[in-house]
TrEMBL record:
<dbReference type="GO" id="GO:0005737">
    <property type="term" value="C:cytoplasm"/>
</dbReference>
<dbReference type="InterPro" id="IPR016496">
    <property type="entry name" value="GTPase_HflX"/>
</dbReference>
<feature type="binding site">
    <location>
        <position position="180"/>
    </location>
    <ligand>
        <name>Mg(2+)</name>
    </ligand>
</feature>
<feature type="binding site">
    <location>
        <begin position="153"/>
        <end position="160"/>
    </location>
    <ligand>
        <name>GTP</name>
    </ligand>
</feature>
<feature type="binding site">
    <location>
        <begin position="200"/>
        <end position="203"/>
    </location>
    <ligand>
        <name>GTP</name>
    </ligand>
</feature>
<feature type="binding site">
    <location>
        <begin position="178"/>
        <end position="182"/>
    </location>
    <ligand>
        <name>GTP</name>
    </ligand>
</feature>
<dbReference type="Pfam" id="PF01926">
    <property type="entry name" value="MMR_HSR1"/>
</dbReference>
<protein>
    <submittedName>
        <fullName>GTPase -like</fullName>
    </submittedName>
</protein>
<dbReference type="Pfam" id="PF19275">
    <property type="entry name" value="HflX_C"/>
</dbReference>
<keyword id="KW-0479">Metal-binding</keyword>
<dbReference type="InterPro" id="IPR027417">
    <property type="entry name" value="P-loop_NTPase"/>
</dbReference>
<dbReference type="InterPro" id="IPR025121">
    <property type="entry name" value="GTPase_HflX_N"/>
</dbReference>
<dbReference type="Pfam" id="PF13167">
    <property type="entry name" value="GTP-bdg_N"/>
</dbReference>
<dbReference type="Pfam" id="PF16360">
    <property type="entry name" value="GTP-bdg_M"/>
</dbReference>
<dbReference type="GO" id="GO:0046872">
    <property type="term" value="F:metal ion binding"/>
</dbReference>
<dbReference type="InterPro" id="IPR045498">
    <property type="entry name" value="HflX_C"/>
</dbReference>
<dbReference type="InterPro" id="IPR005225">
    <property type="entry name" value="Small_GTP-bd"/>
</dbReference>
Length: 369
């Protein structure tokens, strides 16, 4: 029934369950229209609060927001959610009052809407300045050509645990939905001296409210500007497959589908049949790990390095002796095949990130034998 989302029989069933369990809140696993919310509240009677999936997610985000940036973004999403609902709420009051306060109600809606819109405008401005700041920071970071690898995945998949494990960072990792709202980037140093930047960010969820995606644009832009995505999956979760689909869907909304991706199955230690899973992973070019026990992490780093190499370009360059720091950078971020010391500098043959190759162009017209 479009008026109440569920049919009248279901309404009666829920109503008796409310009485039986003395429930205070009814949560719908979908987004409800403002009218449906109101009609359901009326049908269930009195003190029962009806809440939809979007409101619940916004609520959890609100509880988790620990930094100013996260709080700003959550407030924006909440206000955008309230705006249409606010209007209808007043129309509802008007009808109850039999139209007596019609003029007043209308005025009040206008006032409230204006206040909310002004607040939304101010918030957007503030978030925009955060965005610019982030962008500047990223630009400064790209001056050093270390590739950025972003962890993406369903909430609670183990992204923060993996980052902590690899970098000794101290990011809050908890058995909670949306433990992380703020992006964190850390340097990962591999045994062979190579390094990359690993970035952890907010987890995704099925039917992620669009207001949230829009509000978290500043945060999510980190993802769309990385060289490689690592999709972390909780393979021990019974709904792992649906979660993968949900993540892919959000990635395509973020225009990040074209970024190369490495799939990682996490929590193998907890899976029912680990051998079977590891076999299947091998067939599918997936790396199996346990961020908790450390199993598979070396293989993971190697796989990341392999993928990054695919994105590098081949250069042959003569690095003058007074540019020695360039040479050490090549060793750090690239893969050197050969170096020869010549009279006027060092000849290098290597795979390097494209951005870095551009820096080397003036030195490239060199022949090596
Ligand atoms: N058994 C097991 N538990 C793990 C593993 N990796 C992470 N966990 C647990 O899973 C829970 C969620 O981990 P987080 O690292 O917070 O997950 P997240 O992906 O960062 O979650 P959000 O920040 O909400 O997106 C924590 O309780 C971790 O201890 C693993 O390999 N094995
Ligand atoms: Mg996290």
């Amino acid at each position: 029934n479009p008026r109440t989302y569920i049919g009248s029989g279901k309404v009666a069933e829920i109503k008796s369950a409310i009485h039986a369990f003395d429930a205070e809140t009814v949560i719908f696993d979908d987004e409800l229209s403002p009218g449906q919310l109101r009609n359901l509240e009326k049908a269930f009677g009195g003190d029962v609060r009806v809440c939809d999936r979007t409101a619940l997610i916004l609520d959890i985000f609100n509880q988790r927001a620990a930094t100013r940036e996260a709080a700003l973004q959550v407030s924006l999403a909440q206000m955008e959610y309230q705006l249409p609902r606010l209007t209808r709420m007043w129309t509802h009051l008007e009808r109850q009052a039999g139209g007596q306060v019609k003029g007043m109600g209308e005025k009040q809606i206008e006032v409230d809407k204006r206040i909310l819109r002004t607040q939304i405008g101010a918030l957007k401005k503030e978030i925009e300045s955060v965005r610019k700041h982030r962008k500047q920071y990223r630009n400064r970071r790209t001056a050093v050509p270390v590739p950025v690898v972003s962890l993406v995945g369903y909430t609670n998949a183990g992204k923060s645990t993996l980052l902590n494990r690899l970098t000794g960072a101290d990011v809050l990792a908890e058995d909670k939905l949306f433990a992380t709202l703020d992006p964190t980037t850390r340097r990962v140093q591999m045994k062979n001296g190579k390094e990359f930047l690993l970035s952890d960010t907010v987890g995704f969820i099925q039917k992620l409210p669009t207001t949230l995606v829009a509000a978290f644009r500043a945060t999510l832009e980190e993802i769309s500007e990385s060289s490689l995505l690592v999709h972390v999956v909780d393979i021990s979760h019974p709904l792992a497959e649906q979660q993968i689909e949900a993540v892919d869907k959000v990635l395509s909304e973020l225009d990040a589908s074209s970024i190369p991706m490495l799939m990682v199955w996490n929590k193998v230690d907890k899976a029912n049949d680990p051998e079977k899973i590891i076999m299947e992973a091998k067939r599918n070019d997936v790396v199996c790990i346990s961020a908790l026990t450390g199993e598979g992490l070396e293989e993971f780093c190697n796989a990341v390095q392999e993928r990054l190499k695919d994105m590098m370009v081949w250069v042959e360059a003569l690095i003058p002796f007074d540019k020695g720091e360039l040479l050490s950078t090549i060793h750090r971020v690239g893969m050197v095949e050969k170096t020869v010391y010549a009279e006027n500098g060092t000849l290098v043959r290597a795979y390097v990130p494209l951005r870095f190759a551009r820096l080397l162009t003036p030195m490239r017209q060199i022949c090596m034998s």
